[in-house]
Amino acid sequence: MGDKITVEALVEGGKASGGPPIGPALGPTGVNIFQVVTKINEVTQPYTGLKVPVKIIVDQETKSFEVEVGVPPTSALILKEVGAAKGSGTPNTDYVGNLTIDQLKNVAKAKESELSALDMKSAVMIISGTCVSMGVTIEGKPAKEFQTEVRQGTWDEQLAEPLREE
């Protein structure tokens, strides 16, 4: 087993190419870039339209490789749910979309492996913080107002489910 080189990149799901940043980073390793790109596109296909972090681990001796796929950034998941291209430039006054409580829970479940939250209520509070800075409303209300309601217990019934499967 030889030395391993790890290359990390952010690619669009199902649309990786041999160009930058992957091609130039992998070129010196001698690995077949076409095979790597094909594998990346295969494993990121479920995230079509989203930027997905990938980690490519190349064994320099055998020229074999592994591809690990991360979870897309929270902002990308929110934009996909609201159908917007980008967040608001003035998030306090202009809103780019609205999330329902179910969409918010879906984003929280997608990010569960990267959140320090122990329950759904805490995870939703973290995700709603990203909505504040992106100009996304939740259930038709500004995200800060939604957070206040969550703290007061207004949404306890809808957020009573576990974040992770046990």
Q: What do these coordinates show?
A:
The chain has 166 residues and is of the alpha+beta class. 37% of the residues lie in helices and 17% in strands. Strands 1-2-3 form a 3-stranded antiparallel beta sheet. Helix 3 (74-82) runs antiparallel to helix 4 and helix 4 (101-110) packs across helix 5 (120-134). The radius of gyration is 19 Å and the shape is elongated.
**Into which percent range does the helicity of residues fall?**
25-40%
Strand content: 15-25%
What structural category do the secondary elements indicate? alpha+beta
What is the first-to-last residue Cα distance? 36 Å
Strand order within the widest beta sheet: 1-2-3
Give the CA-based shape: elongated
Structure annotation, total helices: 6
* Radius of gyration from the alpha-carbon trace, in angstroms: 19 Å
Mean of pLDDT: 89
Largest sheet: 3 strands, antiparallel
Which residues form runs of ≥5 with pLDDT under 50?
A: none
Q: Order of helices and strands, N to C?
A: EHHEEHEHHEH
Number of strands: 5
Fold blueprint:
Elements: E1 4-12, H1 22-26, H2 33-44, E2 51-59, E3 65-69, H3 74-82, E4 97-99, H4 101-110, H5 120-134, E5 136-138, H6 143-152
Parallel strand pairs: 4-5
Antiparallel strand pairs: 1-2, 2-3
Helix pairs in contact: 3-4, 4-5, 5-6
Which tags fit this structure?
single chain, 166 residues, alpha+beta, 3-stranded antiparallel β-sheet, two-stranded parallel ribbon, 6 helices, 5 strands, 37% helix
